[in-house]
Amino acid sequence: MTKLATKLTPNSDFLSAVRPVRPPQTPRGRRGGRTVASWPLALSLLLLLLVSCSALGPLLRGTAWWWVCAAVGCAVLLGAAVFRRLGLPRLIVPVANSAVLVGTMTLLFGGGTGLFWLIPTPQTVSIFTGLIDAGGASIVQQSTPAEVTLGILFLLAGGTGLIAILMDLLAVTLRWPAIGAAGALVPLLVPGFILDEGADTAALVAAAVAFLLLLRVDVSGRRARAATHRAMGPRVPQIDRSERPRGRGPMGGAVLVGSLTIVGALLLSTVAPAFTAGGLVTARPGGLLFGSGVSPMINLGQDLRRPKAGAAFHYTSTGTEQPYFTLLTLDEIIGLTWTARVDGADVRNTVDAIQKPFGLDADVETVEASTSIVIDGVNSHWLPAPARASSIEGLTGRWYWDSRTRAIASVSANALGQEYTVSSLELKPTAEQLRQASSDYPASVVGNLQLPVEPPSIIEETAREVTAATTSNYDAAVAIQNYLRSSAFSYDTEAPVEDGYDGGGVGVIGMFLQEKRGYCVHFASTMAAMARTLGIPSRVSLGYLPGVKSQDREQGLGQYNVDSHDLHAWPELYFVGIGWVKFEPTPGRGTVPNYERAAVADTPNAAPGGAGATGAPALSPDRLEDDTALERGAATQTVESSNLLGILGLSTLGLLVILLPAAARRMLRGSRVRRIRSGRAGAGLAWTELQHTSLDHGIPVPVTETPRAFAGRLKSLRAVDPTAMEALERVLLAFERSRFDRSQASSDTLADDLTLALRGMHSGASLGIRFRAIFAPTSLFATLAAVLRGERRARTIAP
Amino acid sequence: MKLDPTRSSPPAQAVSGGNLRELQDAGRAIMRNVETVIDGKHEAVQIALTVLLAEGHLLIEDVPGVGKTMLAKALARSVDCTVGRIQFTPDLLPSDVTGVSVFNQAERRFEFKPGPVFANIVIGDEINRASPKTQSALLESMEERQVTVDGTTYPLALPFTVIATQNPIEMEGTYALPEAQRDRFMARISMGYPDSDSELAMLDSRDTNSPLALISAVVSEETLRDMMLTARAVFASGAVKEYAVNLVRATRDDRDLRLGASPRATLQLIRAAKAQAALNGRDYVLPDDIDSLAVAVLGHRLVPTSRALGHHHQDSGPVIADIVRRILADTPVPVGVAASDQFPSESFESAPSPSVPSVHAVSTRPVGSTGAS
After folding, report:
1. What percentage of residues in chain A have a pLDDT greater than 90?
2. Distance from the A699 Cα atom to the nearest Cα atom in chain B, whole angstroms
3. Residue B61, number of CB atoms within 10 A of its CB
4. A742: nearest CB among B10, B18, B235
5. pLDDT of residue A615
6. Which member of A84, A165, A242, A552 has the greatest number of CB atoms within 10 A?
7. Inter-chain residue contact B357 with A743, CB threshold 8 Å
8. Other beta carbons less than 10 A from residue A223's beta carbon
9. Is B302 a domain residue?
10. Confidence class of residue B346 from pLDDT cuts 50, 70 and 90?
């Protein structure tokens, strides 16, 4: 036997060389790792959040917003789980979570202003404040179901993110899952405050199930934690297995209590609308147009400001002109606001017998017109109908007509889905008749002369000034109409809201006359108020413009479509012997009634573009239609092309995002192999790469396994070809020598062996696993964790 | 070259490839030799050989008739060295083990007659049949490797290995070895019943003649001593030592164990792992060596709680093996950080250019890691 070499090596002393031993690790004390990440808990939290978000559905149009909320929720909750898996201290996780939320919001809403699209810059902050303001304003302006503007989307996404952080903090960090779930109550309760019927029962039940699941997952999580150190498996002594808790245990009680609570809550929520309807919680009338009668004008404005118009109804008419459709008429000024004098239906006046218009002289020309209306989206107990309806057929439900304003209304029925035919009188007075109308008003109309006790003086001053040169009431009215339609005034649905003078109250009119910006409500109420100051009875009607002619024809008659943007307000003035005559003071909207021409031409349609005797910049119905149609067409076109661009950009971006991990992983592997080949790194890095590739393939790399056992498992898992197996053996040997041998042996073929082994592993895997390994490399998280810990590169997976 | 068993630190020597190969060849020869008489007990034979090389003592515990004594004898006969055999009985006296001073009439003085313990390999058959007094006489000499009779201390032979066999404690007429004395053995193995093929083969080959008669020594005493030295010089890295310490500490904290393993257990675990690494042709210890030896080396030192024992009142062996395997599966394997990975540029310059041994062929059969699987 040869002599033993007698070279002294350091660190060979037997006992003193033992490294300081760390205290025994308990599962609870261990930072990071599978046990702490508790994926099931995170996933059930996420499920609960998504389900409760869907409860907001009845409030909002479309479903796209839900996906954005889901994305943010996923980012926050799954991000938290990943952070825990990476071993971030538990108190840091909420902070890191907030960072994730900010990053996600910057990515989604920052419009590229963020640093690397993720880190907010001052510019991003200003964008965000703008979005918050816009979102708040949109919420105030719109009625349900609201159009989801970018601002609302921002608020929704941000709210979801905040709730997610709160839920994660309570449920996972502080381990109070039942309380953490309370965060999900927010989206569940919101519909209850806004809609009479509250949230969808299906959503409530789904949320309840998700909540129970969360509790259940938490219970099993706790049991698993308690049993982590216990032996498992068939070879475990019987005593070990029987030690595990059986039955519901103390946590079963929590589940029971939770279930009872949920059942109780569900029962309550079905009973709850009874309370809210009683006025305990004054809800804004959901989709009911002018439902409450509190401020129809403001409601009208809100509907006009909706970004997207909803279809209201369509009709065909035999009349000579396209009628304005009246919903209700405001004829009284109470305090400072216009209101309907009798808000509600007179139950004696059913629509079966509508009286002839009152006070109509025989010599005024009238045309009987029949209008068939199909309601598509008017959710109201007021019925849109042309003025001076004489009979209405085809209605379902009990409908009444108001003896004073002739508005059609119902107490119980709804306009939605009605199909009916209205016979009405078109009034065609001549300018001469109007001029000659006396001012001997009947008693029933005198009330329409009332003004508030102290109206702003500017109203009467302006009225006097504008009508100085006129002699008759009619001329005065036309003068006021012309004045309001002049270029001094501009049509603007936003300005009054922004400057705080929305609505049609008398106080508002004063401001409107100074600002000279507003929309139909302001123009109509201003003209009506000015007329009253001049002693002409007036009122304001709310309803719809005639709408746009569509391609469809029905029984030889042109069909017209009316949408929510055709909502309109216009003044009506009373002329003795003729009745209520409408005017159109709103610039750019509707048609100016042309009473001058009626004397010479029987058919108004025969004089297209006739400016009328008033010389007002009136628009003919045809031109208006054309313009509107053109405008809409252009709008759709731009929308379509920009949509296409957006879709293209988004898909490219999505593709890049999908390919990003694959590219990063590939580059990382390349750089590692290069470093090994150049001798700058040794077998340790090769082993790290092998471990990471295994992670990518979904093969766990437990720290309790020896390298040799791990390699053996790799071989048994993958039917690796012999050359790859030998290469793997060589990599293993090199790694073992680098870690457990005293010499730093370097292998020249290490890089090649590694590549060979990796290739063998990859080719031995199934298609799905290969796909996953390429496009969703799990090991990037390990690398990320190393970078987060401040290391330059990932270490070998080891305790 | 003299072996000093009392030295706490092994000689810091590198192992040359030639030594290792000789050791491996000799080891294989012994294994083949022993396996001519013991069929289908490869693992037990391997651990027995490992213990022999690691200068430890071996306890073979099993029911009667499965070949305990056969293994001990075969192992002893495979090496050309002195073999002592003690059949323990209840009436055996300590002096029957250690030797006795006899008055020499001619020289008119007491003369020491060495007992059977003065041999290189001592086979203690059915050690738990002797009275505790006699047991302790043997166990004392095992630890101290010397015998003191009438005030005179006699050193024992080198190498000195005791291979003791015993029946499980529930058998009649036995005195269980106290924990302290079990601790002196490096490893305990159980033979277990042979599988049916091995048993059939045994019927054919050993029907008439005693197979032990066919066995002859294949390794000289000198070679064995060299092998022991080589095994002792195998390198155990810091990571491996840390792993051993963590394992042993885990036995002390485990809730299913009343008594954990001693520091001596750690020491012997590493020693045994070195011997096994050498037998596998490696000059460095792998965590896998520790894994494969843990049950044998740690098992007999652990005392399970009565709860963990459950209804296995009779035989704690399987329960303890399960517990050790669980601890193995739960204990992280420190891999350490190679210097070359952390400071790639410096290490190559500052490293004292170690004599890099050529890469040895590792046995194609991977080290069995019974516990970690």
Report:
1. 0
2. 15
3. 24
4. B235
5. 38
6. A84
7. yes
8. 14
9. yes
10. very low
Give chain B positions within 8 Å (CB) of A798: 332-336
- Which residues of chain A does B353 touch, with a Cβ-Cβ cutoff of 8 Å? none
Q: In what order do the strands lie in the sheet with A408-409?
A: A382-383, A408-409, A400-401
pLDDT of residue B1: 41
User: Mutation test of the interface with chain A: which of B240, B315, B327, B335, choosing the one with the most A Cβ atoms within 10 A?
Assistant: B335
Q: What is the CATH number of domain A296-591?
A: 3.10.620.30
Closest Cβ–Cβ partner in B249, B286, B311 for A21:
B249
CB contact under 8 A, B338 and A738: yes
Contact: B242, A18; criterion CB under 8 Å:
yes
Residue A62 CB-density burial (10 A; 0-12 exposed, 13-18 middle, 19+ buried): exposed
* Amino acid at the residue B261: A
Which chain A residues have a beta carbon less than 8 Å from that of B12?
Answer: 8-9, 12-13
Residue A325 pairs in a beta bridge with A386, A544
Residue B141's CATH number: 3.40.50.300
Query: pLDDT per residue over A418-434, tens digit each?
Result: 888 888 888 888 888 88
Are the beta carbons of B41 and B219 closer than 8 angstroms? no
Q: Pick the residue from chain A with its C-alpha nearest to B330.
A: A704
In chain B, the number of structural domains is 1
d(CA B93, CA B137) in angstroms, rounded, equals: 9
d(CA A439, CA A614): 22
Query: Pick the residue with more confidence: A372 or A184?
Result: A372
Which residue from A408, A413, A497, A505 is spatially nearest to A451, judged by alpha carbons?
A505
**Closest alpha carbon within chain B to A686:** B341
Count interface pairs A-B at CB distance under 8 A. 202
Q: Where are the domains positioned within chain A? A: 34-225+251-272, 296-591, 643-788
Smallest CA–CA distance, residue A237 to chain B, in Å, is 6
- A11's tokens: 């660190």
For A711, nearest residue in chain B (alpha carbons)? B366
Closest CB from A1, A5, A747 relative to B14 = A5
Confidence check: pLDDT of A336 > 70:
no
Instruction: State pLDDT tens for residues A587-625.
Output: 877 777 777 654 444 443 433 333 333 333 343 444 344
Judged against a pLDDT cut of 90, whether residue B273 lies above it is answered with yes
Closest-CA distance, B356 to chain A, in angstroms, reads 6
d(CA A730, CA A760): 14
The whole-number pLDDT of residue A145 equals 63
B223 contact residues in A (CB cutoff 8 A): 1
More confident residue, A607 or B26: B26
Which residues on chain A are in Cβ contact (under 8 Å) with B350? none
A705 vs B240, B283, B372: nearest CB: B372
| Angle CA B275–B341–A27, to nearest 5 | 70
Cβ contacts of residue B241 below 8 Å, gap of 6+? A14, A17, A18, A19, B270
Task: Give pLDDT, residue B266.
Answer: 92
Contact B284 A795 (CB under 8 A): no
Residues A387-445 have pLDDT tens digits of: 888 888 888 877 877 777 777 877 677 777 788 888 888 888 888 888 888 878 887 78
pLDDT in tens, B176-220: 788 878 888 999 988 888 888 888 887 877 766 677 777 888 888
Provide the residue range defining the domain that includes B157: 17-195+211-339
Task: Measure the CA–CA gap between A405 and A215, rounded to whole angstroms.
Answer: 60
Residue B360 placed within a domain: no
Q: What is the DSSP string of A707-752?
A: HHHHHHHHHHHTT--HHHHHHHHHHHHHHHHHHHSSS----TTHHH
Which among B227, B256, B284 is the nearest to A742, CB-wise?
B284
Q: Is residue B369 part of a domain?
A: no
**For the residues A709-714, what does the mean pLDDT come to?**
87
Asked if residue B368 belongs to a domain, the reply is: no
